[in-house]
Design brief:
It is built from six helices and seven strands; from the N terminus they run ααββββαβαβαβα. By secondary structure, it is α/β, with parallel strands linked by helices. It has a five-stranded mixed beta sheet with strand order 6-5-4-1-7. A two-stranded antiparallel sheet has the order 2-3. α2 runs antiparallel to α6 and α3 runs parallel beside α4. The protein is elongated, with a radius of gyration of 19 Å.
């Protein structure tokens, strides 16, 4: 991380809640998403550190179609039998987004709450942006979820500001993210002068 990104992150962390919320919304929009939390059938959020979905962003994700039929055994049990398996293809999907611009790390409980909120919404991909990073317990849970049915991506705020973004199983559809972020950050900083 360069000194510029470090200073920018320190400045962002020191801002008040409403400014951090606006910065988070600008990041979601720069990723091509909608920062409006859309959660069905749930009461209002307890706050912005509860692991909720802070927005949704369009992504590409690898998917394949497997066709199975049920085969009945002589004892009456039915077993799935695979009859066709497609190739993996990049398809459009939606990822839930969570951003944490705070001095403390992203904890295991917050990560698990985020994953449960994603599952409730029928979303199986999530992007987390944090200023400090994942706690050791959250890193372990992150790997466990990725080994099972979720595709999670963690991006440090410093990497996001430098445009150095890589997610193993997720591609962003927005194009030149670094350019989008520079424009959004410039607009925000000039509006604060």
């Amino acid at each position: 991380m360069s000194k510029l990104q470090r200073k920018l992150v320190e400045d962002l962390i020191s801002r008040n809640f409403s400014e951090k919320q606006e910065i988070g919304n600008r990041i979601v929009r720069a990723l091509g998403g909608d920062p409006t939390p859309k959660v069905t059938g749930l009461p209002p959020r307890r706050g912005y550190s509860d692991g909720g979905i802070d927005g949704r962003i369009p992504i590409l994700i690898k998917q394949r179609i497997i066709i199975e039929k049920l085969k009945r055994k002589s004892d009456g049990m039915e077993l799935p039998v695979r009859i066709e398996e497609g190739e993996f293809k990049w398809v459009k999907a939606e990822a839930g987004f969570n951003i944490k611009i705070e001095t403390d790390s992203f904890e295991r409980d917050t990560l698990n709450a985020f994953v449960e909120n994603l599952r409730r919404e029928g979303i199986f991909a999530g992007v987390i942006v944090s200023a400090v990073g994942l706690s050791p317990d959250a890193k372990s849970e992150f790997q466990r979820h990725n080994a099972n049915d979720m595709d999670l991506c963690h991006i440090s705020l410093e990497d996001l500001l430098s445009g150095d973004i890589s997610c193993a199983n997720i591609r962003f559809v927005i194009g030149d993210l670094a350019a989008q972020l520079r424009v959004s950050l410039r607009e925000y900083l000039t509006s604060q002068l």
